[in-house]
Model the fold of this input.
Amino acid sequence: MKLSILAILLGTAFVSSPALAADNPGTGILKAQCISCHAIAKPENASLDRLWERKGPDLYYAGSKFNKPWLVKWLQEPARIRPAGELYTRHVKGSDKEDVVDESTLTAHVKLSKADAEAVADVLMALSGPADLVSKGAFKGDKVSMSMGAMFFNKLRGCAACHQAKPGTGGSSGPELYTAGERLQADYIYSYIKNPQAIDPHIWMPTLNLAEPDLQRLTGYILQLSASEGK
Ligand code: HEC
Ligand code: HEC
Done:
């Protein structure tokens, strides 16, 4: 009984005050320049309305998601990840055939100096989110055949309807994946494909109940894409 009360108290403390290092200048930058668009603490109400209204992706589990060298680089030179921004419904023009991105509604992302990017990345990488968010060691690291991977990605599992594995080819309602290997941790990619809503509640990527070999193959394919298409 006492233990469960303690757990509730600790849980609440985590939600309302994330583990932000007060002495790091990155904390001040995040609070002043970033939290108007990004959540750096787990939202108490992860509703569909909140997803629909958010102005930028959640960053409260950044430490379980990003590769730090990519983060430091991207914050200085932000290149578009979501072809139709956040959220895509606000930036596509209606069309019967396929989505056309209305570029005039998309704005450039704030850029940081090298020192600020490093300070912010230090703070973000310390935010690991809920302990069970990604399954550590889930991706086994096997090399996969790129042609088999492409067949599953494009045809058999329908990922290309929303994602680009090559610049300019594929859907625009999900993030491009040709730089995902540089950008994201392997176990995050695996866990996201396995159960997208466990990481981002209400997100419109389907949970496909993929078998283990499929999860390994798609994760390996996406990681290898970065080397072939992302450069
Ligand atoms: C005006 C709203 C806005 C502000 C302010 C803003 N961002 Fe963003 N941020 C976005 C949007 C929109 C995206 C998605 C960009 C894309 O996909 O190309 C994004 C993407 C990101 C990403 C990549 C996230 C991912 O999951 O792919 C990081 C990291 C990031 N922002 C960090 C920051 C930091 C650090 C600051 C403050 C210095 C900041 N942002 C300020 C709107 C904002
Ligand atoms: C109906 C559209 C849709 C389909 C189909 C889809 N996804 Fe997604 N996917 C998304 C959206 C939306 C996100 C997250 C958007 C965000 O973070 O802003 C996402 C995120 C991801 C991410 C994490 C990327 C990141 O930058 O955070 C990976 C990896 C991924 N999808 C892989 C796949 C794979 C593999 C398939 C096929 C099995 C697939 N997706 C099918 C819409 C889709």
